[in-house]
Amino acid sequence: MKIIIKSPVPLPPEKVWAGFNLDLLKKLTPGIVQLKADVFEGTQPGCRFEMRVGAFGVLQEWKGLVTQAGQTPGSFWFVDEGVRLPWPLKSWKHLHAVRKSANGSVVYDLIQFSCRPKWLNPIVFCFLFPLFSVRKRKYLESF
């Protein structure tokens, strides 16, 4: 399954990209979701992150690795992939990108995921899409 979220912000890409850190991750987390970050090494290939996520006091382990990153004039990006994922996720790949726009920048969240069992994919999509859509407002508040 795929989720694509585009979030316009009024700052240039360099300033937005400089704000991609653990504090931003915490700000982007919707109120219904609990997030406890144990490790956040950054946005370069090889950087790890380890956290516990959940709701209503039930937390599951989520470990990932930044597998790719790059920049071109006016754009920055990195990809994180799940190494150990909370049930029911089987796979997770998340491209974070910031690109120059006429009014500042656009932040892109492009997510590919699958669940085990497969029939949960559309159900999890219906849960994840609104959680990531909240980022539009939160990016705007942050930048």
Characterization of the model:
With 143 residues, the protein is an alpha+beta fold. The protein has one domain (2-6, 41-142). 24% of the residues lie in helices and 51% in strands. A seven-stranded antiparallel beta sheet has the order 1-7-6-5-4-3-2. The longest helix is centred in the last third of the chain and has 13 residues, at 121-133. The radius of gyration is 15 Å and the shape is globular. It starts with a strand and ends with a helix. 15% of the residues are buried. The mean pLDDT is 94.
What is the secondary structure topology, with strand pairs?
Layout: E1 2-9, H1 13-18, H2 22-28, E2 34-40, E3 48-55, E4 58-72, E5 75-84, E6 89-101, E7 104-115, H3 121-133, H4 135-142
Antiparallel strand pairs: 1-7, 2-3, 3-4, 4-5, 5-6, 6-7
Low-confidence stretches: none
What's the number of structural domains?
1
- Largest sheet at a glance? 7 strands, antiparallel
Rg, Cα atoms, Å:
15 Å
What topology, given as strand order, has the largest sheet?
1-7-6-5-4-3-2
Structural class label:
alpha+beta
Query: How many individual β-strands?
Result: 7
Helix tally equals 4
Order of helix and strand elements from N to C terminus: EHHEEEEEEHH
Question: What percent of the residues sit in helical stretches (DSSP H or I)?
Answer: 10-25%
In round numbers, the mean pLDDT is 94
Roughly how many Å apart are the termini? 29 Å
Relative strand content? over 45%
Features of this protein?
7-stranded antiparallel beta sheet; globular; alpha+beta; single chain; 4 helices; 24% helix; 143 residues
